[in-house]
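Section 4.2 – Deliverable D4.2 (structural model, holo form)

The reporting period included a commitment to supply a predicted holo structure for the target in complex with biotinyl-5-AMP. Inputs used:
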Amino acid sequence: MYKEKILNLLRASRSAYLSGEELARKTGISRTMVWKHVRALEREGFGIEAVPSQGYRIVSVPDALRESDIKPGLKTRVIGKEIHILSEVASTNTLAMEMAAKGAPEGTAVIAEVQTAGKGRLGRKWISPKGNIHLSVILRPAIPMHKAPLITLMGAVAVASAIRKQCGLEAGIKWPNDILFAGKKVSGLLTEMSAEQDRIRHIVLGIGMDVNMEPGELPEDVRALATTLASLTGEKIDRTALVRQLLRELDRWYGVFLSNERDVLREWQSLNMTIGNRVVVSGAGATIEGLAQGIDDEGRLVVRQDDGTIRTVAAGDVTIVKRK
Ligand code: BT5
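Output (structure tokens):
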């Protein structure tokens, strides 16, 4: 427990040194004990620099995701109360849907290092190599079915906020499910649902993030449209810290969503980079072109065509043809 506290303090201070004295004071143990725990962390694969007059700081972390690193001090209300980590799975979304059907509690998170059959929307593939984050959470909101698409928007807000907080990158959202930086995709979301009549049984919100993978892992056509957080920041990302931040942001925004979905829509608007631009929306039957005017209460995209007709689109792929 003290070891985890020390680790969390060191993680939180990122590149700044924390003195042995401060660590001892904050954890309530002696400086010698602090040193012993630091040594134990080193044996677990953490690179910790110790400078006599300044203190300790983390210089490298083991890259594997472990529940024992993610859980301590997480303090979320719902999300991540149960965490399942797998080294390999076909798809975390498929597994989470199965677990949800068998009664897994709300907030259960399924994480995989590698997916062998990662899913995108509309039967597309999500390439899921080692070094990235593949996470699905089980949700059981008491909302009518037509509100379910808002869960994707809520998830996008949480992902963009986690990236901003953890990596310092001002990522934006492209309707409905892409997180972009400088026009390139760093994360995609896939929401699946099980429902009967108008009652939602459960929703699985799946998040794929391109974090530390080698860009060469992606086929050339996809590579041209994607990027990784590591290449954007120029340094390897602490995936554990990022997963923790993501679980916290999901917890926070899911809570906001349940109490007032308009607050989520407002935040989405401020992070979005679709509205106000000329767009082409495809994949929703006919292709629609026009000005992306906004989103409605159900998260659908409202497009004004050149002849003045207003079209509302529930699903599709957006290409921004002209920025405002
Ligand atoms: C998405 O679909 O963006 C949803 C991706 C959701 C992935 C997560 S990972 C955890 C959970 N478990 C799953 O099985 N899935 C979820 P869509 O908007 O349809 O985009 C798919 C398209 O993105 C593909 O057709 C490729 O062009 C491109 N793509 C595939 N892999 C990519 C990657 N790793 N990074 C960026 N783009 C990728």
